[in-house]
């Protein structure tokens, strides 16, 4: 009984420490705003709507930023959340929930605020602060204990932290942690450096250096210290404060600006040796690797077209031999055929290691030449998201252009949605998850990936269904890259699928993110109704699904638009919300359509009041002939 009491006390004490750490922020900042103004009340409403989206998305990805109502500068709100690297999704969610609740309480009238806990950051403002470093105010938290040999200890701290800051700034995660040994003082020094992921390498490094400079001056000789601001944090401690099993195999490289080690320094010089030797070995291995790539490029030159060598050498690691793919697909046997798309046929294959793959074989008459092929390889190689199909590799030999994807077991959405038998598998919960998965994937393409990408061919046959019917966007052959500040682009060749293409694209060749939003809206209507966008066999008039949806919405008979397979009941409100969102996405006026960020907010929120949609384009039946006679290429 006595031992049980001791154990209970220890557990409660540890729980108390954890709870206190969560409840006490390491830094918070708030600016006041006139709470009586109408615009502020709208700002507060927008902030509350954004709050839940930041928590839910941030806990999944470890970082998330989004904006709301950006066209109204008086009530627009921008938000950003980030969790400390190396913590679990549960720890991340718990911290963000606490931060999201407390930032509203502690900054009730704030137009701009941020709050930092040990495990997370929560920040919002009425102005766009994304990709801008905020380095003040700074909270400096020095430790209590002093090291015995201050000069050696301080040199080891600086060597560790300079390496960590350089690596953190250059990494995509903007996070780095590591360990250095101070043998003179018989100590292990643990360090951490992290920026918010929206910062550039230059701005991140500048922010981290300002923090480390503060630490080096104000915490010299202290066994622990951290400097914190809104955009970055640095910390070192004698003692573990992160999961050491996640440590990289060798410490970060030394700073180029640090002085050479003192030959008489003895123990401290070992730190530099431990860092330099693995880096030197790494450089040798990298040189050998790139030498191998160059050799392979030369040896493949005779068998490939002249255009083959234009694909960057980095992609040779993804290249498959044609004979391997022929064997995997049994020489492209009809029995292995999975389907046919606009640019070619897709086959199922099994690699020598037993892995199942989907092979997209581009036809020579498909219209996707070498440029489109390279485009798809380059895009997919850089994109990583659970709602995007995963590219495993490619083959480009002779006249063959092949893309090798991870095999998605359940096929494409259209095989279920438009099949009278298979559609029964798609209950409302699955359809709703498919809608949200497509929205998450499109949001990643438009705003969250390192590239801004317009898909241009979003349709049911390009949505693959993985394990658990998780939706994955595929077929990037017609995708376009956009600059960060680019809003639209014109094209002379209009290509896509009738019904899914936005009117400004069909008529004027104008491409934008809102073109994809239109296609997404059409997809939502198809998922809700179980019907294709254009169906010549449909007995009712008009023939276009968008027009039918609008007619039911206008007449108050929206329930008649839904797929009879759907059992509604308690889901009625959510289903009607999705129909509402679909109609907002297909509005004629480009500016009236929401962004994918706004779509995700609407899907995640149970209290948001949606705008009233205006009529979609071509909803009058006679307009269908205008679309059908346009200069578009049907896939």
UniProtKB/TrEMBL annotation:
It is a single-pass membrane protein. The chain crosses the membrane at residues 271-293. ATP binds at residue 360. InterPro entries: GNK2 (IPR002902), GNK2_sf (IPR038408), Kinase-like_dom_sf (IPR011009), Prot_kinase_dom (IPR000719), Protein_kinase_ATP_BS (IPR017441), Ser-Thr/Tyr_kinase_cat_dom (IPR001245), Ser/Thr_kinase_AS (IPR008271). Its main location: membrane. It comes from the Eukaryota. Residues 332-608 form the Protein kinase domain. Residues 1-21 form the signal peptide. PANTHER family: CYSTEINE-RICH RECEPTOR-LIKE PROTEIN KINASE 5, RECEPTOR-LIKE SERINE/THREONINE-PROTEIN KINASE SD1-8. This is Cysteine-rich receptor-like protein kinase 10. It comes from Stephania japonica.
